[in-house]
Specification:
This protein is 32% helix and 26% strand. It has a 6-stranded mixed β-sheet, sandwiched between helices. A 4-stranded antiparallel β-sheet has the order 2-1-4-5, covered by helices on one side. The mean pLDDT is 91.
Length: 219
Amino acid sequence: MVRFEHVGLRYGLGPEVLRDLNFHIEPNSFQFLTGPSGAGKTSLLRLLFLSLKPTRGLITIFDNDVVSLAKDELSVLRRRIGIVFQDFRLLDHMTTYENVALPFRVMGKDESSYRGEVVELLNWVGLGERMGALPAVLSGGEKQRAAIARAVIARPQLLLADEPTGNVDPTLAQRLLRLFIELNKSGTTVLIATHDIGLMDQYDARRLVLHDGRLHSYD
């Protein structure tokens, strides 16, 4: 599904923040991405989400050479990827329900075909009574859950999550991880970036470890 070959990334004229990355992610797999702060995890996720192109090297996603694609082609490809940003990226003028339903609206689907699914997921993540609330009145944990629900609602082929359990209590963190695991069992490839070693130790999953811009894999 994903292949990086000798990938490097720098911002402007600065030093490379990612150096000579060589790895692949198999379809239907589940893995964690970890490493110290500043190691480049968010930059790697941005490459995977196609919001950045590498400075050098080759990235192939869904059998497409990312470097050679035009912006409109990248936009179409990005619809097959779900992402949970660390800063949530909820749209301030939309309610919780509208934010979570956004992927379906982008696809041009009629609301009657997805409303029940959105409501069910919001109830499952504990936001059933906050469906009509705007982001400004949601707590950090509520925003986190809404962002996760939006990322998974359309069952993307690839799910990327940047510290998805960082603003919730341990019990809810476990529940959200179960959601990711069930999504993975249904065919979605999952990559979760986290600092939480205790959380990773509870699951038998591959770990991609970034350190000083370089990547190591531990199965």
